[in-house]
Amino acid sequence: MLVLASKGRRISARVVDTLIAFGVAYLLLVGLAGSTSDDGAILVIASVSLVGGALLYYLPLVHWWGTTVGKRVLGLRVVRLWSDGTLPPSWKDTFLREFDRAAFLSIPVLNVLVGAILLAQMAKGRGTYHQSKFDRAARTVLVRWPGVRARSVAA
What we know:
Helix content: 55-70%
Largest sheet: 3 strands, antiparallel
Oligomer: single chain
Number of strands: 3
Structural class: mainly alpha
Strand order of the largest sheet: 1-3-2
C-alpha cells in the first residue's frame, strides 16, 4: 500500500535535491562562462545554467525512476496519481512538474522569494494528497517508497 510523503521528508528531500541541482548548475556555469568577462553575458549564462542544471538533474531521474537522489535517500518516489504506484511520470508529466519550478528559481532576486514561497507551501497542508501546484498540474503525487504507514493514496 502506498503512503503519502510527510512534510518533513518532502522538505528534507527538496533541500538535498536543490543542493545537488545547484552543483550541476555551477558546473554548467563554469563550463559556459569560461573566459567571458562581460557582466551581462555572465548574468544570462547564470540564469540559463540554473534552469539547465535543474532540468538536467530532475527530468531524467524523475521520469526514468520516479525519484531523485534526495527523494531516494529519504525513501520517497513520484508516482502518477490514481495508479498502483509502479509507473513513474511520463515525460510530459515530468516536464510539467519540474520546468516551472526550475524557471522560477532561475530569475535573479525573485528566486529567493519563490524559494521561500515553495518552502512555505511545502510546510502547510495541501489538500487530500499533499500536492504542490506542480504535482497537481502533472497529476502526480509524492509517496513513501516502500509504503509504510499513514494515509493511503488508493481510496
